[in-house]
Each structure stands twice: as structure tokens, then as C-alpha cells.
Amino acid sequence: PNILTVIRLALVPLFIILIDESRFGAALVVFIVAGLTDALDGFIAQRFNCETKIGAILDPLADKALLIAAYLVLAGIEKIPFWLMIVVVSRDIIILGGCLLITLIDKMPDMSPSKLSKLNTVLQILAVVVVLATLAGWFDLTAQLTIFYYAVFVSSVLSGTFYVWQWGFSLNRSAEMYEPKK
Length: 182
Prior knowledge:
By secondary structure, the protein is mainly alpha-helical. The chain is built from 6 helices and no strands.
């Protein structure tokens, strides 16, 4: 599974190059292949009980690298709104920063994705797929893109807020455990 994750990480620069060269169909194929390697490495890791600590770190890193690259590059060539890229990237930076801060203060927080976070990821992926497929001329969903943009915006804000709230609650509970009893 870790080899598949490394392959997925290696696909990120290729994906960026293809978009930069306006080869949107090829970029979409790379994006889909990367998604399939994600599903396959997860299946293999669970099915054959070969989950590793490095895999637990690399897998979400590879996922985020691909999605963040997609939003940065597509916003850079003005194919998705700049404000949406800011929200998507800021959410991930806040989550990463919060995770690091909590790890320094207390301990590594539970990084299991919430259902809302999973929905957010699906919406982020669908938005990229729709944009690339439209740019490649595979089909035209230009009229529906605004709906995808706002769905990604709302789910990003809500899931980011949920993590901040959850971790704040966790820190508060940890602090209460260390307070002296009166």
C-alpha cells in the first residue's frame, strides 16, 4: 500500500504540469488514477492487515497534496474562483496547525475524519472532476459549477469549524484532568 501512496505523491507534479500545459483531459485521467490508487492502497492495507505508521502519515499527506495542488493550480489559471481556493487551502492549514499545536500541548489528537470531513473531501474531488471534464470538453457542466463551488465552500467551513471545536473541547477536557481537586 505504501508504494501506491508514493506513486500517488509522484503523480502530483505530473498533474500540475498537465494543467499548466492545458492538457485537461490527461490531467483528469491522472487525477482519477490517483484516486483509484488511494482506494486500492486503503483496501490492500485493511484486507491484508499491512497498515503501517508511515502509511498512516503518507496517505492523508498524498490526498491533501493532490487536492491542494488542484485548487492552487486551477485558481492560478482562473478556472476556479480564487476565494474558493483560499477557503479550501486555509481549512487544511488550520487543521494541520491545530493538530501540531495540540500535539505540542497535549498529545496527538484523533485524526479520524468525521463524516462531514469525508463529505467535504468528496465535494472537493467532484468539483475538480467537473471543472477538468468541462475544460477537456468531455461534457459541459459550467452552469452547475457555482453549485459545486458553494457546496465545497459550506462543507469546508463547517468541517473546519467542527475540527476546531472538537479539538478545543478535547484540550479543555485534558486541562480539567490536570487541575488539582479542591
